[in-house]
Amino acid sequence: MRVGMIGLGAMGLPMARHLADAGLLRAAWNRSRDKADALAAEAGVATPSTLAELAAACNVVVICVSADGDLREVVAAMRPGLAAGTTVVDTSTVSPVTAREIGADLAELGIGFVDAPLSGGVEGAAKGTLSVMAGGDSADFERILPVLETFSARVTRMGPVGAGQATKAVNQVIVGGVAEAVCEALALSEKLNLPSERLLQVLGAGAAGSWFLQHRGKSMLEDRFERGFKLSLLLKDLKIVQALARELDIPMSGVDMAIRDYQQLVEAGDGDHDISGLIRLKRSPPAVIPGTGEQNTHKRDD
Questions:
Q1: % of the chain at pLDDT higher than 70
Q2: CB of 90 closer than 8 Å to CB of 63
Q3: Three-state SS across 12-80?
Q4: Model confidence over 7-64: pLDDT tens digits?
Q5: Does 168 qualify as catalytic in the annotation?
Q6: Residue 215, SS3?
Q7: Distance in angstroms (rounded) separating the CA atoms of residues 251 and 177
Q8: Which CATH number among 3.40.640.10, 3.90.1170.50, 3.40.50.720, 3.40.50.300 corresponds to the domain 3-160?
Q9: What superfamily in CATH does domain 166-283 come from?
Q10: 221-280, pLDDT tens digit by residue?
Q11: Regarding beta strands 60-63 and 25-29, do their DSSP bridges make them parallel or antiparallel, or are they unpaired?
């Protein structure tokens, strides 16, 4: 199996390293060339100058980019080099509609497509313990399963193309909701002058325990938000969820609130910070709810 990796960001780079360690990675490409060159020096893989060249050299291509537009651009650039029998695996988080459209387009060329978004954060990518929720033809899925297993603890096929992204939408509703709850709770704990170390221990040992509390509780109380899942990306994901909810006519008040909160943080220039940076907003909420013009009745009188 000859695997190409496109996108060497916070998630993609450690995934590429796992692929290289397994002897599967043949080529890598990144928008900024320096990351690809550094990986090439480290792992001894090719760094084609174009995406079409990478596609021509590989029979499995793994993509990890930020948004729908990026994915469409990458697939379009690969098309001249893609050969029938190749399988494209997208680990980005995009709309299920985008996944289905790209899958149908590639199928006409005899190319398989699996949407395989991830959960587990940069820590999971580094440790190779991600959870993968995949959508695609069963034969395509089985073919690329060894690839996904190099950086994952669990890989689950959820159904046809688009099912992986639909599952990720559900996942992000929970991620956004838990972040809101934990950030509000820890902001409250600070006002109550509770000892942070003991607080995190007792909460984590009970029903309030969560991945987010375990991995971000200490850092957010120390005002460290540089490493993790960019809040601008969660905002993008939640807007995908919001569009799905409107299409399905299902209320998502928690998602709507999270979008307002993260939109304000992005507009304040904090888009590259981890989502736990939300605690700063919970410590001192605005007088006016962003995007509504409505007075925030929960604002404290500090």
A1: 94
A2: yes
A3: HHHHHHHHHHCCCEEEEECCCHHHHHHHHHHHCCECCCCHHHHHHHCCEEEECCCCHHHHHHHHHHHHH
A4: 999 999 999 999 999 999 999 999 999 999 999 999 999 999 999 999 999 999 999 9
A5: yes
A6: helix
A7: 14
A8: 3.40.50.720
A9: N-(1-d-carboxylethyl)-l-norvaline Dehydrogenase; domain 2 (1.10.1040.10)
A10: 999 998 889 999 999 999 999 999 999 999 999 999 999 999 999 999 999 999 999 999
A11: unpaired
Q: Which pLDDT value is given to residue 25?
A: 98
**Contacts of range 32-37, beta carbons closer than 8 Å, 24 or more positions apart:** 35/8, 36/8
Provide the whole-model pTM. Answer: 0.90
Please identify which residue in the block is written with the tokens 């690809």: 36
Residue from 35, 127, 168, 236 carrying the catalytic annotation = 168
Q: Please check whether residue 163 is in contact with residue 137, taking contact to mean a CB–CB distance below 8 angstroms.
A: no
Task: Answer whether residue 291 shows pLDDT above 90.
Answer: no
Would you say 8 and 16 are in contact if contact means Cβ atoms under 8 Å apart? Answer: yes
What is the spatial distance between Cα 49 and Cα 37, in angstroms, rounded to a whole number?
Answer: 11
